Amino acid sequence: MPKKIRDKVKDLLNSKEENASVIVKGWVRTKRDSKGGFSFLEINDGSCLAGFQVVADHTLPSYQAVASQLHTGSCVAVTGKLVASQGKGQQWEVHSSEIELYGSADAEKYPLQKKRHSFEFLREIAHLRPRTNTLGAVMRVRNRLSHSIHNFFQDRGFLYLNTPVITASDCEGAGEMFQVTTLDMDRLPLNNGKTDYSQDFFGKRTGLTVSGQLEGEIYAMALSDVYTFGPTFRAENSNTSRHLAEFWMVEPEMAFYDLDDDMDLAEQFLKFLMKDVMENCQQDMEFFNQRIDKTILQTLTDIVECEFERIHYSDAIHLLEKSGESFVYSVEWGCNLQSEHERYLSEKVFKKPVIIYNYPEEIKPFYMKLNEDKETVRAMDVLLPKLGEIIGGSQREDDLDKLTARMKEKEMDPEEYWWYLDLRRYGSAPHSGFGLGFERLVQFVTGMENIRDVIPFPRTPKHAEF
Ligand code: ATP
Ligand code: MN
Q1: What is the domain class of 129-174+210-453 according to CATH?
Q2: C-alpha to C-alpha distance for 312 and 300, rounded to whole angstroms
Q3: Do 3-112 and 129-174+210-453 share a fold?
Q4: Closest ligand 1 atom, CA of 174?
Q5: CA 381 to ligand 2 center in whole angstroms
Q6: 356-384 tens-digit pLDDT
Q7: What percent of the chain has pLDDT over 70?
Q8: Could you give the CA distance from residue 303 to residue 292 in angstroms, rounded to a whole number?
Q9: pLDDT-derived band of residue 171, with 50, 70 and 90 as boundaries?
Q10: Separation CA 405–CA 414 (nearest Å)
């Protein structure tokens, strides 16, 4: 099987074997012709940030055969000898003895020319943008992060759980659901003037999941520690740089964990991921540090070494009230914290990640455990500087009566959640969990400004191309 540039570079560093013969396959990033009758081709195959420089002698017959079609974007296989490079920027180069053209790319039409393109423009060519340095680096980091998410949980004995994508439960207020139906939208079956969902595919109204938590709890109440890692859908009409309509969420759920354990796990988890990515994606992370955010490596290093601040919601409100800042959204006890508040606390006050916990009962969903004060619930959010909320979690209400009472207060029908209540009816146990937005993590770690540039194919209001 063909070896990729990444592995060739590794081999080379180990062997330092000059004049070895190699074959390099990849896409031409740049081509520069020298006066001495040579062309310098920068070949990249996406296996790592760095490409290989190929020096092609214009007198080679195979070069002449393809010369007119060798442009940025074309794909080639180059056979040649490995030579220590005289030029700056690379240790090795390939002096080609043969060049084979796999696919040409019209120099006039290929949208990815050498110059820097805006990320907005690159989103319009999402089928070609993975060939850029930045998107390539993002995707390698994203891949590493998902690998190490599994490592983190697997090493701790958590079971990977697949919760349903199509569901009838909306996790109460987590977000607006996309509806899933096979009904003919132009001719809806009616019953007393309302859509008759009994004729729909599942015999009831269904949608795409906004969270796998409730189903995660079912399995935690049998297998102790589980985690989900899957696509999540929210039809929120929020055109921000931190929201997608389709994103991936990691949701661990743990039996016998209280809120402190939950916060401990969340903190360890984030530190583990940040450390791991710095160790295993060095080249890409250097790139982000140079080109995207000059503070990112220092920020990640500081986070790995610091202790997260943990404060009560009430204390956070107090700090915001006496801050003297003019926020767009005013602050008072009982309000939802906005991104500007979250960033103020983590960026200006503590200058590190902050976990806010014990939120007012009224602004949090029914399933969070009520505190003795009956005014707050055992909820926690992890906030990061610059980003705001990355994780939201809670200890779950395990008392049947309290849970039922809260559902009624929130005008929910306990009958609909009979299975969820059964978990409290039969062998209830304290348990906790949280949800981490995977793209927010990738965004934070890479320093990228917009969440649309850290997922292969972003879905946002009015955008579902590709
Ligand atoms: P926010 O207040 O930022 O909209 P939320 O409180 O609605 O988020 P949760 O229901 O707590 O979000 O979801 C858990 C995590 O999932 C969040 O902490 C965040 O990291 C991520 N997340 C939520 N909504 C989105 C979205 N639309 N796009 C990307 N990630 C999201
Ligand atoms: Mn939240």
Answers
A1: alpha beta
A2: 25
A3: no
A4: 10
A5: 6
A6: 999 999 999 999 999 999 999 999 999 99
A7: 98
A8: 19
A9: low
A10: 9
